[in-house]
Known about the structure:
Helix content: 25-40%
Bound molecules: fe (ii) ion
CATH architecture of the largest domain: Alpha-Beta Barrel
Number of helices: 13
Oligomer: single chain
Radius of gyration: 22 Å
CATH superfamily of the largest domain: Metal-dependent hydrolases
Amino acid sequence: xxxxxxxxxxxxxxGRAADIGIKGDRIAAIEPRIDADAGRxxxxxxxxxxxxxVDPHFHMDATLSLGLPRINKSGTLxxxxxxxxxxxxxxxxxxxxxxxxxxxxxxxxMGLLAIRTHVDVCDDRLLAVEALLEIxxxxxxxxxxxxxxxxxxxxxxxxxxxxxxxxxxxxxxxxVGGIPHFERTMEDGRRSVTELCEIAADxxxxxxxxxxxxxxxxxxxxEQLAYETQRLGLQGRVAGSHLTSMxxxxxxxxxxxxxxxxxxxxxxxxxxxxxxxxxxxxxxYPKRRGLTRVPEMLRHxxxxxWGQDCVLDPWYSLGTADMLxxxxxxxxxxxxxxxxxxxxxxxxxTNVNAAIMGLDDHGLAVGKRASLVILDAGNPIEAIRLxxxxxxxxxxxxxxxxxxxxxxxxxxxxxxSSVARRHQVPT
Length: 427
Ligand code: FE2
């Protein structure tokens, strides 16, 4: 047998040593040792070979717009939404396209090959929807983009949001979004969850709602989301994003809520970089950190992913398209410090996020799509610790990014040395 690409000597995330043979856009073989011809042989000796990174929560219409037209002074979610409202009328199709394309290039260089992005439909021009649908087609040979119709200013609070959500779905947007905690009343929030889930059920679509992104423990729209998921038979196709109010809820209520989420198979997407920045802004000390209850949800068998949410936009002034940054922050804030928990965090930014997005073709297995990343790390924990370099990124059977290993040479009082950032930890 001959392959188009043969990866030699890599280590899989579960610790197995493996050669990987790629034919066309498929993984054709994974064996401890493959002796075969190949169009190209890539040396991955001692390096981690991982499935690609996946981001299940992003805002590509806003990315790379930091500073336009001004900076978020208070650092709050609400000023971010107001600021985005100032920028929206100034957006042009070409500017949204260019920023999105630039971000996709960053993503590919970071081995991030699938992104679910919300796109704001509270703009009657639906210019960002058009631009991102174009980008989705353009990057499809190497990156899977999934779009969520997102009524940022409220399904009922913004006059044409409902109509625009339907228009966006008719144009080909994949997923139904929402923002119940931003509606005018709790009751409107509850009704928006019901109506949006009904729209998704009618059209056979998935749901991903910004849900309870607030420090208010009484914001409980996730309960309604779990209820509607169950009622409409949407199990496994619904995600609640952010869920930060859960941080502030009392334990008794959460002990009822989490089994309901598990029963309805509602996934949760936590966004640690942005929420550690936004939440608790009204507190003095002790200051709530606002991340949703990730370890508790995992213990209840709820599927939980880590999302990035924002990069250089009205809400967040940093970010590099690096899902290892997201995992690094997430495991700190959630105190997921055991080896098993840290490995879980790596799994979350790869396989779990892919499952939330319904990407059946993702993963390192024979017959799956040949998309993978070679990292300058020995194992997943080391990859997170180092936010390891992506040495090679293969997307749908083609090498799309390559980088040589960097080394810093030291000259210390005549003692030549070099810094090896990798470190073997005894097991
Ligand atoms: Fe978001």
